[in-house]
Amino acid sequence: MNQSHFFAHLSRMKLIGRWPLMRNVRTENVSEHSLQVAFVAHALALIKNRKFNGNLNAERVALLAMYHDASEVLTGDLPTPIKYYNPQISHEYKKIEKIAQQKLIEMLPEDLQDDFRCLIDENHYSDDEKSTVKQADALCAYLKCLEELEAGNNEFKLAKARLEKTLAQRQSPEMDYFMEVFIPSFSLSLDEISFDSPL
Question: Domain total for the chain?
């Protein structure tokens, strides 16, 4: 039986730092970011289904979110201002991502490749799935900005403003609901989120 390096590569997601050009109070890696995106994407899908007549498979959406940055084990995390500096750079980077995704998939035993291709390759996502994962990704980046600003790191002020524009462009009823119900708690202390009322 041939060995596969697929999961050995995925385990390196924890070694890839996010926000590499910015000073961070607390560093964040791609692995922990992907888990948070999976949590949020799963919640967005459930909210859409329960409250806004959606028909998403929330468990599949969570899996897609877990793998949404998997190709970065081969490409690294390119900072957003560079990735989207102009349409040509953005287009070329998308091509690099596709090559990295394909290379990852090819590391798997052949009879498992299709099972993972539909998780790793965005071309296999429905429009609703893709939109939900992108919303969750932007929300988690926004939460990171709130966390850094709350800790006194003004380095994230412009990133927060940029992400507010991104969130406005990706606006949906389920995202509005998530922001209204869950986001305010991220600006509170541990004591404030641990107890409903003071002792």
Answer: 1
